[in-house]
Amino acid sequence: MFNTTKLIWILLVTFFISGCSSNRINPCDKSSKIYKTINTETNQKICFESVDSYDLNYSSKPNIIIYGNLSFPKVKKDKYDAVILSHGSGGVRKYHKAYVELLNNNGYVVFQLDHYKARNIRYDKTFSKVSGITFMNDSYKALKLIKSHPKINKVSYIGWSQGGVGPILSHFKRVTDLIDNGRNIFDSSIAIYPYCGFTFDKGSVLNNPLLMLTGRDDDLTPERACINIYEKFNRDDNINLISLEGARHGYDNPFLFFCFEFENYPSLHIINDDCTLTVSEKGEIMSLSNQKITGPKESAAKLSECSTKGVYVKYSPHATEITFEEIIRFLKKI
Description:
Elements: H1 4-18, E1 44-51, E2 63-71, E3 80-86, H2 96-105, E4 109-114, H3 132-146, E5 152-160, H4 165-169, H5 173-176, E6 188-192, E7 210-215, H6 224-233, E8 239-244, E9 260-267, E10 277-279, E11 285-287, E12 292-293, H7 296-305, E13 308-313, H8 317-333
Parallel strand pairs: 3-4, 3-5, 5-6, 6-7, 7-8
Antiparallel strand pairs: 1-2, 2-4, 9-13, 10-11, 11-12
C-alpha cells in the first residue's frame, strides 16, 4: 500500500531542494549597471564583478558578474556597520530573510549575495560544482565594493555550511594575504554549521574575531572539525565556538520542520591527513598529504573518500533563537 506520509515528506523535501522562491532568473544581464562603487541608501539589486575561481590561485581565471541584494535599516544614520551574507550549497532560501530582517532591525546594512545565479546553478546536491573558496572570492569582492560606500564603517561576514568556509578562512592572515594582497579584511566573521575541514600551522597569524555556531548532532558537517580549529587556534578568546545541543544541519530552516534523512548525502566525519585541507602558498586547495583539489572532479573524489553516506537534517526553533541572539551579541562587541 502506498505510504501517504512518505509522499508528503517527499513533496516537502522536493519543495526545499527546488527552492522557495519562484524568481530564478539572473537579474544581472548585459544591460545591467555594473557597480564599482556604492553611495546609495536605498534597497536595490547590485551587480558587481568577481573572479570565477575554485581556489585562491587566480592565474588565468575568468571574471564573472555576481548579484546581491543591498538593504538598509529603516532608521537612517550618519554611519553604518554592514554584514555580507554568503549562502550554503542550497543557495539563497526564504529562511535567510529572517537574518536580513534581524540585522536590518538592529541597524546593520546587509549585502546578501547569490553565488549561483550567474553560474547557472540552482542547487548543488554534489557539494562539488563550486567550492567554499569560490563563495569566498565573491564575498571579498563584495567587501571591497561595500567599503567604497562613504557611510559604511565596519563590515562582518556571515556564511552557512559551505558558505561558512570563507568566514573561517578569513581568520587566517596567510589566506587573506592571497586576496588583493591583504588590503581588505573583514572586521569579524561568523560561520553557521560550517564545513571546518581546513587547518594551518599552529603559529599562524590570525585576523579579527571569529564566531562558529555548530550543531551538536550535525552529521553532514560534524562539529568535531570546528572544535579542532577552536582548540588549536583560539588565543585570547579570538575564536568563540557555540555548540548547540540537539541541533542538526539546517537547524535554522523551518522547511526542515520534520527530521528528513538524505541517504546519499555525505557525512564528513573522517578526519586525517588525506581528508584535512589547507591552502598552499600559491593559493591552491590541497590536503595535508599534498593531494591537490583543482576543481569539481578532484573535489568529488575527495568528498567520496572522506565521508560515509546518509545524514539527517531538522529544524530547531530553540537553536535558531540562540543563533539570532549570539549573532547580535557578537556583532555589538565588535
